[in-house]
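Look over this one:
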Amino acid sequence: MPKVTDAYRDARRDKIARAALRCLERKGVHDTSIADIVEESGLSTGAIYSHFSNKAELARYIVGRFLIVRIDALEAAGREGTVLPPRDVLTRMLGILTEDGLPAPLIVQFWGEAMADPDLHAEMTRTAGRLGASLGIAVTPWVRRELGDAASDTAVAERTAQTARTIASLAQGYIANTAIFGPRDVGEYVESVVAALGD
């Protein structure tokens, strides 16, 4: 019997997860069953269970794998010293999210499920931690420029953490708003935030 490679295993898990996402979008997190995912994926029940022991494990995989997508470019820019003001980081992150991320209504459902599922909550917290770290790296050059050369590393770290958390909070607001009220242009949203909070 040929050995199953990690690449094959990952591809199969992603296929199952993408089938699950289609079901979740149609039926919601609570009402989607493994039988629905079996039908959608075209795989057997055994194939699904050989990769995920239950729906909760699959949900955790989806959150970890697809909730925060491709912010690597933002992080790389920060590591290279590119100065990206927070509004640019927010705009780019929301652009990535709306193009390649999970649909906003599904993210909000996962947030709700995480309140009752400790394992899903832990995965959401880990994912949010990764996002916060990436956002912090992305805004660090801007923070250093804003605070000046005399700023201590502690001051830079504190301002970076505050700025990253604020960007993440604004992104959550965008997600919740679009989940309830429908799509909204990212550029218009960011400009309205800047206008509303400006002096």
About this structure: The chain has a mean pLDDT of 89. The longest helix spans residues 118-147. The two ends are 68 Å apart (CA to CA). Residues 170 and 193 are 9 Å apart (CA to CA).
